[in-house]
Predict the structure.
Amino acid sequence: MYKIYEKKMVRRISQSQFSFLLKILFKDSSDITCQKNYSRMGCERGMKGIQKRLLVVGILCTILSTVLATQYATTKAGYTYGIVHPSNADIRFVGSDNNSDDNIRVLRVSNNASGSQYLQINMGDWLPNTMKNYTAAFAIVNEEQFLVNITHVNVSGDASTYIDVWLHTNRTTEAALETAANAEQVISAGVTQHTASSVAWVLAAGDGDLDCMNGTGTYGIQTPWDGTAHVRYNHTTAIYAQNGTRDWVWVQISLNIPSTASLDAAATGQIWFHFTASTHTEAQDAEPCECGDGHIDNGDGTCTATFDNPTEDGTIAFSLLEMNWEKITGENTIDFMSGAMPRCGFIEWNISSIPDGATIEDAIFYYHGNTNTGDNEIYQLLVQPSASTGDEIYGGIDTLYTDDENFPVVGPNQQIDVGADAESDIQNQLNDGWFAILISGAGGVPSKIYAEEYGDANPKPTLEVTYTPS
């Protein structure tokens, strides 16, 4: 018994440690011998005591072996990522404006035939004392499945102090002329206007579809391939970008060349766009955003409702014969004009799908413009057109929402922000479940937009509301 356990012990503990254990466990065991003068029963009891102590030694040896053991393991994990053409990346640049020199897009890809393609911005040749704006030099599009922030932009290189850069909503409008909410200057005279901890613009979550930006729905924007500039592009859309709720933004680049600029100077440099994103946020851990039925969850705690099927739209026309306002529906156009026989347009939407208690953040009116003959205005309507006569509709005109001299812009996919007063009125009418506007004309000949009844209206009169659910 002893020798067997000694061999096991020697492998794991020192001899001195083993002797110490024996002294504790066997105390007087050396005096216990099975001599002839001992009774057989006494001897057996003595041996049983020794066996018990030796069993304890075996258990302790096992425990010590377990404590002193060290475990090792090796495993591996694979990784993947793609290196793609600059026009096909998750954050991609989409061309628009053409260069004034070669009529190729300002944004282009150089070395396209090789394996070292890179984006280039070519702005042409200009005289001293010149100011040139490319209002849509290109768009930045987010195709990732979560919000992406543009934190800041910086420029380096020759004559960089002549460069201004803006992020803005309207492709055809100079950024400085847009409202503060719709434009953000990120470079002024070559100096960055933000820091790495800033958020200059928020790109909404994308859908990974390289053939379009802003999705494939009513307000999707096609981005076909330009085989000369080797980029995707769009130079026709009238749909506005929106900070935080749409997945792209237009980039305006302006050159302000002073009269003292050196002639024949070839300026080269780089413009850096910096992005941040959180793929796991507190918002993702919180309760899901309770958007209304069929509404879009923007991924930032807000929702977007698109009402593109008016409850009723039409025109009220003043009749000199009857001396009243006649209600006209079912026509292809909504007409509005002033003069001896004035007309006003009206549109009503069912907004009951917006959850009760929601906070209205923004409201945009989309339309297809037919004719513009003068300054026109959009007003609040206090009465529900579908339940009112022409006289009642005219009597329900209240708050002026907007008097934009360019409204309506002729052509498809036009839009106008109806403003803070309209947002407040939508908020107040959530319990009523409807919202309506009236359009009045200033010219002696009708201005027109296409009505819901016109089959080729693109779009039908549409109200888009962004809100935060309760």
Helices lie at 2-10, 15-26, 40-68, 282-285, 390-395, 419-428. The radius of gyration is 39 Å. The longest strand covers residues 130-142.
